[in-house]
Automatic annotation (TrEMBL):
Source organism, top-level taxon: Bacteria
Record keyword Secreted present: no
Protein name: Glutathione S-transferase
SUPFAM superfamilies according to UniProt: GST C-terminal domain-like, Thioredoxin-like
PANTHER family reported in the protein's UniProt record: DISULFIDE-BOND OXIDOREDUCTASE YFCG, GLUTATHIONE S-TRANSFERASE-RELATED
All copies of domain GST C-terminal, residue ranges: 86-208
Domain GST N-terminal, residue spans: 1-81
Keywords, comma-separated and alphabetical: Transferase
Amino acid sequence: MLRILGRTSSINVRKVLWTCHEIGIDYQREDWGRGFQSASSPEFLALNPNALIPTVVDDGLVLWESNTICRYLADSRRASHLLPTDPRSRAQVEKWMDWQATELNGSWGYAFHGLSRHSPEHQDPALIQASIQQWGHYMSILDRQLASQDTPYICGDDFTLADIVLGLSIHRWQLTPFDKPELPHANAYYQRLIQRPGFVTHGSIGVA
């Protein structure tokens, strides 16, 4: 059985759990990370030298990096409804997954840790504001993309892995306490995503 190592309050663990829900994968989850078994322990480092969650073990295969894990699960279980086999369609899904992991994720770190997690190391008002502005910039890109297409999901009419990773990112945006610009298309998209049973079960656990 698939083993998922990581606490459910982690946004990246929740990507994997939501993916498993959409595919119907049985798994055994183990609490690792902040507040649980240490990801810096020799046992964990033998699986993932980065000491980060999630890490999964599937029939002897060890994987880390949450978006890679989601792709692998869709591929290995032939869930082409989440990750198309057609190269052009697949590239669109992976484009938005990579954008989420790099540009969008890279923008929110300081503001999220300062405002939601109240980290003492993230309390510089200027740096918080800079992070908010950058975060808003990328969310505006997403809003404009959704406005430009008449489809319910980011890659068209069908729900895909891109919607899982973006949905959790928008959830973090919504819950982090600061004044936000009007993003009607992103907000409507978010409302569609949070109705899915996979989000209801796994998406809102923890602090954003």
